[in-house]
Amino acid sequence: MQILINKRRTQFLDHLCVKKRQSRVDVYIGFLKDFSGKQIYDIEDSDVLDFLILKDVNGSGRTVVHHRACPRLGSASLEYCLDKTKCSSRHTANSMRIGIVQKLRKGFEEVGRKGQYDPTMAKGDPTRSKLVQEYIAYKHLEQGESGIKPKSARSMHRIKMDKFMANLKLEVRGRKGIVKLRIAERRAMYAFCYSAIKRLFGAGNILAHNTIRMPNNAGLVFNVTWDKTLRMDSHCFGFLCVKEVEPWCAHCIIDEWVALAREMIHLTFQDGLLFPRLNYDGTVKHGKRWRAKDISDSLERDLKRYHLYEGETPHSFRHGGTVDSLKKGKNLEKTMCLAYMKSTSTAKIYSKGITHLFPAGFDWKEAGVDTSKTDEVDLACQMQAWKAFVSEGPTM
Ligand SMILES: [Zn+2]
Ligand SMILES: [Zn+2]
């Protein structure tokens, strides 16, 4: 037993270690200590100020800010600016405040440096000093005068998405080997993200086993249990097959990826992730999952290949989807309550996902489901048959 305890403890401590290493707080505090050449207890507000100024002049900021007197005000380029010090590429005031100052503040808090900063004694939290606050305010003013508008995520328009999916389809067809498979996976993830409507980044955490295929292969429903950005009440959503009415169908594209992975690398999708990370030799990286950054990088590369890139991020997919092509049925909620909540509590979760798809209800008769039966075993069997990838998959 002691061995088991030790093993589990080591596992947990490793996790803490990695978490600490990855935290932005530690990264920025580390930078600040190196930059000032001081220990965290000796850092003064002027060190923090110089660090923020460094961030504004070292080219790490991406927002073009012209000086109020620059004739090029409003232009997205600095090329013709007369004074390249007054006009430059900087961090926005907000991203500096949230992305850097607040991270540093947490770092100071962790060692007990809290509260108002006292410049005479150099005590307290140096990020709360007047000097640092005034710098952020100065940046706000500067950017306001420069006409910088707050940016929102660029949306992925339907027409562009259609072009993107068409290009990727050709790409999958034209390629061979693992490259082909990896593109097929990315294509499936993009289709998933666009059609899932709500939020992104969940793709990397979906278990194949938790995916439900709707009766008559009408669509897929996903149950996501862990996704930092996904804050739906049920963590459950899905989409219908739209191959007859839309240029591409996420449900069919995901099936294509599954079929290809089964054929090429013998993934069964009985267990494991629906979108695992793959090595270049086609083996699965079991410890790794798709993260926001991986998806962003791949998306940028793939869009650039077809000259479609205009600053899209995985957030851009949010405004996509198949909402307007949803079928209309009737009385879904009642039917689900009657039929499924009785047999298993997970049905309740899935039913929420289906409700998203069929705001007006789902026509169970059309799908060939006899809802007059309320026998628990019978219904549980029926639900088992809905498991999306348990058998060899649907006929396509
Ligand atoms: Zn300028
Ligand atoms: Zn489909």
Explain what you see:
The structure is a single chain. By secondary structure, this protein is mainly α. The chain folds into two domains: 2-146, no CATH class; 158-384, hpI Integrase, Chain A, CATH 1.10.443. It contains twelve helices and five strands. It has helices at residues 2-22, 24-36, 45-57, 93-110, 130-146, 158-174, 177-195, 250-265, 292-305, 332-341, 345-357, 376-384; strands at 63-65, 88-90, 211-213, 219-223, 236-240. The strands form two sheets. The chain has a three-stranded antiparallel sheet with strand order 3-4-5, covered by helices on one side. Strands 1-2 form a two-stranded antiparallel ribbon. The protein is globular and about 75 Å long. It starts with a helix and ends in a 12-residue tail after the last helix. The model is unreliable at 227-234, 319-348, 373-381 and 392-396 (pLDDT under 50). The structure holds zinc ion (2 copies). The site of one zinc ion has 5 residues, from helix 8.
